[in-house]
């Protein structure tokens, strides 16, 4: 089936994004651009990265094309992908659907909601899920469904099964743990691999356990920060998408350090969500390539 470009006066161009990675070799970019030109597509953004250590090429190309269907483009591009051993995906302009999970802290949810309503998040928030009732008013004030799913040691399996049902019910492409204070099981991490983003504080040196900002204050830290990453069975060690660092000094007491940390968490998480929703993040082993 042809997916060629029709008359510009009668067809409104649709926008698409192609991402891929493959073994490095001559002719990859030429093959991609030739395919797009041959289908009457106009490239509007192109980025690539050659990983010399792993001998792999990573590529993201955004383009517009009239009267094209994403499934047809995928099917026809498959021949190019096979020739170059590409792992690829291709999306149309539909915004990914985002399911947000929270506990009691609302700073990350509030920031995500603001950016979503401002049209700058890159995705469509569909619902908020929580193991507590505290943030119901914030979610419902934004016009979103709020689903309370209790999660204790005795109910963890039931809670995670309910989460999978909600992912399907809301057709969620991405799950965001916006300070959701529960550890996902290995099984759930595997089922949602590459589709869950988490945020946590990060210090140098690292402080774990209760009251990390009080520990940081006692050690006189000069930086606070946050890390947004994909969730894997290795707790807080998944591929990093974004990190934010803020400089502090001796005048920051635990309360001020906590406030600075919340700012860092909100910034790092919102960027990670937007870049994922814009298909700018490609997994590279235990790392990521982020085309900002």
From TrEMBL:
Presence of the UniProt keyword Oxidoreductase in the record: no
Catalysis: reaction(s): (6R)-10-formyltetrahydrofolate + H2O = (6S)-5,6,7,8-tetrahydrofolate + formate + H(+)
UniProt keyword list: Hydrolase, One-carbon metabolism, Purine biosynthesis
Tagged with keyword Hydrolase: yes
E.C. no: 3.5.1.10
Signal sequence segment: none
Pathway info: Purine metabolism; IMP biosynthesis via de novo pathway; formate from 10-formyl-5,6,7,8-tetrahydrofolate: step 1/1
Source taxon at top rank: Bacteria
Residues the record marks as active site: 236
Domain ACT span(s) in chain numbering: 17-97
Pfam families in alphabetical order: Formyl_trans_N
Alphabetical list of InterPro entries matching this protein: ACT-like_dom_sf, ACT_dom, Formyl-FH4-Hydrolase_C, Formyl_transf_N, Formyl_transf_N_sf, PurU, PurU_ACT
Similarity comment text for this entry: Belongs to the PurU family.
Function in brief: Catalyzes the hydrolysis of 10-formyltetrahydrofolate (formyl-FH4) to formate and tetrahydrofolate (FH4).
PANTHER family assigned: FORMYLTETRAHYDROFOLATE DEFORMYLASE (PTHR42706), FORMYLTETRAHYDROFOLATE DEFORMYLASE 2, MITOCHONDRIAL (PTHR42706:SF1)
Family annotation (NCBIfam families): PRK06027.1 (NF004684), PurU (TIGR00655)
Name used for this protein in its record: Formyltetrahydrofolate deformylase
Species of the source: Lentzea flava
